Amino acid sequence: MNGFLIAFAVSFGVVFVAELGDKSQLMALAFATRYRALPVLVGITLATTAVHLLSVAVGHGLGSAVPTGWIALVAAVAFIGFGAWTLRGDRLTPAERAKAERATGSAVLTSSVAFFLAELGDKTMLATITLATQYGWFGVWVGSTLGMVAADALAIVVGRKLGRLLPERTVQVGAAVLFFLFGGSLVVEAAGELTGRPAWAAVGDVLDHHTAGWLALGMAALVALLGAVGGRRLLRASPARREMGRAARVPGSPAWWGNLLYGTATVLGLVAPLLVGADVIDPITVFDDPGLVVIGAGLALLGVVLVLASQLELRRAGGPDPVLARTGLRSRMRNPGLTGIVLATAGVLVMVPTLVGVLAAVLLVVSVRIQVRAVREPMLAQLHGDEYVAYAARTGRYLPRLTSARS
């Protein structure tokens, strides 16, 4: 009995800690935003039980017989498919929605297959195999299974909380991005396994600073275009923004300075990656790394998605002033478009870190602060009075307010 308890305790602790921040825990969070928690947890438990039983029994033999590269590739295709499905969304009638709430089979099956594929060859499977060589197999099986289920249940609690607090479309896009990231990471892992060459070595050959410069230039140009289109659309949709547009024509006013700094930051943000791509200047050596290029591209894409989501909401806005919205992104944050632009600019800077890019980012942040604090908020407070004060109290300025405002 003591041997079982020791094996159980050690395995539970090791796997629980190993699972924190792992892709499986992030998967659990993503699935929890799409399905009810209990079916997802059942699916995780079934998959984990099967995988960890394989780990302590024939896991090592399975790893030798089936190349983990092919397993990772199959899992990558599945995750990309999950991301596309989540991003597309579903439209249900009330009767279908009620039926879907009662039906748990599809959620259990989907999460079971996804977690089974993800865990084959994962570090938690390898850790379980290692533990089984030192402790009793039954204690290791039970402990490692419950340790992983506990860690993923923690992620589900977080995911359900976010699902209640954030707008539905925001949660949907966020979950899809997670699935795409899982798929992309597994594609890289599979390429390394199947070619016998370190995956990042191949990525480094492709993502030199010239290529990164041109990719970053494309990102920066897209952000600049979206910023211009979004600004004009908001001017047409919001009476307050029209007042701000007139104020920006007065030389020396805060609105004028904000626009000037924003325009300068936009130009410098385009020049910096252009100079790197044309081999006129080199990125800052310390930060010139293919891994940072990938991270920067992810940040830039996330910023672009946020800007696009913000602009799509403007098209659907039915109220007299969309800045006072009670649904969607603007029901949680007052400046989602500006947040997306800053995030995308930061991503471009990470892709091609240069002093010119740093200057562009600093000027952008200063211009945003001026536009928001010295122009938008005072003018909106003057135009809407107590209604804007209440709106500001229940929303965040640049990031979503995750807690409800107290009455």
From TrEMBL:
Pfam families: GDT1. It comes from the Bacteria. Its main location: membrane. It is a multi-pass membrane protein. The chain crosses the membrane at residues 37-58, 70-87, 135-158, 170-192, 212-235, 256-278, 290-309, 340-366. Keywords: Membrane, Transmembrane, Transmembrane helix. The keyword Transport does not apply. InterPro entries: GDT1-like. It is found in: Membrane. Gene3D superfamilies: 1.20.120.1630. The keyword Lipoprotein does not apply. PANTHER family: TRANSMEMBRANE PROTEIN 165, TRANSMEMBRANE PROTEIN HTP-1 RELATED. Belongs to the GDT1 family. This is Ca2+/H+ antiporter (TMEM165/GDT1 family). The lineage of its organism: Bacteria, Bacillati, Actinomycetota, Actinomycetes, Pseudonocardiales.
